[in-house]
């Protein structure tokens, strides 16, 4: 009987290779097979050895190159053929990364799985933009939500944003107008401060700020592209974030 390989669900972080865990870096460097998402930065893939086989299963919001069940099947097939598979994902595999689904399918096929956490976009973006997710004066609650999901309108976000709380929205660029509308319908003030962090922890990062009511215009006029996070709450308007922005501009 062939030995079964292990599937490693590995978080690649938000982009900067320096933000990989040591374990992720070692696994990538020694991998013979890497199955990766489109979000994984080329600088990280460049750590792989020249003879590693790299398979991209890039997903775009409207264009799936490989449906999720086929990705899961690919992982199982390779592991059953005796190969260890490094399944490399942007950010953390268990935060909007479908890592749970891949793990469950592997377990169902009796393929061993190991999870290697990564720095999720929210943490990477917070650090890179100087916007703390929590702050004793501004927020003691932080929530992560998916802005592109089935039935966005019916999602109950009541109470997730507002005074003393921070709401981080993943995958929300395309649905920004509906998101702003939804939050204001829930009672959020139109002047609640908002930040958009595009390409966090990458050289081309942009940090944009404005009031909630202007979120759709900000996205449109500044032509915000994916990947970007929308952060809603007073933490985005603290004075020290302006200082961090100046430091960013000075460094650019
Ligand atoms: N597992 C990932 C999230 C995957 S969902 C994680 O933990 O970060 C994809 C969404 O993540 C994107 O639409 C975007 O909202 C966010 N994202 C990922 N990388 C990002 C980056 N470098 N800058 C800003 N947002 C990012």
UniProtKB/TrEMBL annotation:
BP term (GO), one: cobalamin biosynthetic process
Molecular function per GO: uroporphyrin-III C-methyltransferase activity
InterPro entries: 4pyrrol_Mease, 4pyrrol_Methylase_sf, 4pyrrole_Mease_sub1, 4pyrrole_Mease_sub2, CobA/CysG_C, Siro_Cobalamin_biosynth, Uropor_MeTrfase_CS
Pfam families cross-referenced by the UniProt entry: TP_methylase (PF00590)
The keyword Transferase appears for this protein: yes
SUPFAM superfamilies: Tetrapyrrole methylase (SSF53790)
Alphabetical list of Gene3D superfamilies matching this protein: Cobalt-precorrin-4 Transmethylase, Domain 1, Methyltransferase, Cobalt-precorrin-4 Transmethylase, Domain 2
Protein keywords: Cobalamin biosynthesis, Methyltransferase, Porphyrin biosynthesis, S-adenosyl-L-methionine, Transferase
The UniProt record lists the keyword Membrane: no
Biochemical pathway: Cofactor biosynthesis; adenosylcobalamin biosynthesis; precorrin-2 from uroporphyrinogen III: step 1/1; Porphyrin-containing compound metabolism; siroheme biosynthesis; precorrin-2 from uroporphyrinogen III: step 1/1
EC number: 2.1.1.107
Annotated ranges, domain Tetrapyrrole methylase: 6-215
Homology family: Belongs to the precorrin methyltransferase family.
Entry protein name: uroporphyrinogen-III C-methyltransferase
UniProt organism field: Pontixanthobacter rizhaonensis
